[in-house]
Structure formats: structure tokens, C-alpha cells
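Entry for magnesium ion complex. Fields follow.
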Amino acid sequence: MVMETLMQDPVDCSEDGLWRSAGWKELSMAHTLEFSFPVEGRSFAKAGDAASRVKQLLKQAAIPTAFIRRAVVVAYEAELNMIIHSQGGTLELLVSPAEVVIRAVDVGPGIEDVEKAMLEGYSTAPQEARKLGFGGGMGLPNMRRSADQLKIESDLEFGTVITAVISLRSDAS
Ligand SMILES: Nc1ncnc2c1ncn2[C@@H]1O[C@H](COP(=O)(O)OP(=O)(O)O)[C@@H](O)[C@H]1O
Ligand SMILES: [Mg+2]
């Protein structure tokens, strides 16, 4: 139920409406490519599948390699976080001539302290994930470094929405 609501209108999770006031709807309509990939919580065997599809699609869209690399880092870390820390959700890819947007929408349990979660090395990854080599606590910091804009909206009731924008304008690369 919550899943459906989030997938139909992920922007509604925004508490402060930043994306809306920044013209998110207009941007969204201008995106020439829109894809979404389901991501299951705890599906460690499928880790990286959605990010690989993102890479493939960006190559097909003839996005320059340097931007693809950054977008794939963001997509991979967002996908992994949904697998490790959430009950699942959707990884979305939006592309326009101006930007690549990666959005991860999950169904919870949400991030209690986003500022803390952004710290390098901070991780609440369970033992199951650590045994597989995940849980270094560098995912969110890497996403921040790789994206031109990163927005984390999290709610302990509804889950987490992470939106990363990679600008394709050469002055922002
Ligand atoms: N989608 C998410 N849902 C819930 N918690 C998350 C999510 N993404 C990140 N977190 C929290 O933020 C912390 C830091 O994330 P990250 O920097 O990617 O490190 P790691 O994934 O290695 O733990 C996680 O350990 C977790 O507590
Ligand atoms: Mg991570």
C-alpha cells in the first residue's frame, strides 16, 4: 500500500517541497528517457543488476563516459543501500539533454539520523551484509561526491527517497 503510494507520486514524500518549488515537475516532463527498476530488500545475489542496466542505458543514450561513471557510482550505491538497509523499492533513471537523474525510492524503514548517515565510515549494515563485504559506510559520501546535487528525504513511516542529479552541462562537470 505504502509502496504503491510512493511509486505513483514519490515527490509527495518531500517534507519541504524543495523539488517541487525547484520545478521538479517541469524537469520531469522534459526527461527524454525514464526507466525504473525494482530492487528487492536482502537480494544480495542481484546486487548491481539495476546499476548495470543504468550503465547500459546511458551508453545507448550516448552520454559521455565521465558522466556515466559518476551516474553508475550513484546508482550502484543507491541500489545497494536499498538491498542492505531497506525492504525494497525502485531505482529510477531519468535523462534529459541537461542532466541525468538517479532516484531511489524505498518502502522503509527510513533513516533515523540523515546527518549521521552521511558521515564517512558510519554504517548500520547487519552482519549478513558485512560478511559479503558490504557496510563500509562510504556509500552516501560517495554519492554526494559523484552527484552535482543530492537530496535525501527520509521518513520513518514512509521510507527514503534519494534524488541525485548529474548535470550534463560542461561547466558543471
Ligand atoms: N535506503 C536506506 N534505508 C535505510 N537506511 C539507509 C538507507 N541508505 C542508507 N541508510 C543508512 O545510512 C547508513 C550509511 O549508508 P552508506 O554510507 O551507504 O553506508 P553502508 O551502506 O556501507 O552502511 C547505513 O548504514 C544506514 O544506516
Ligand atoms: Mg551503502
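NOTE: Confidence is low (pLDDT under 50) at residues 1-28.
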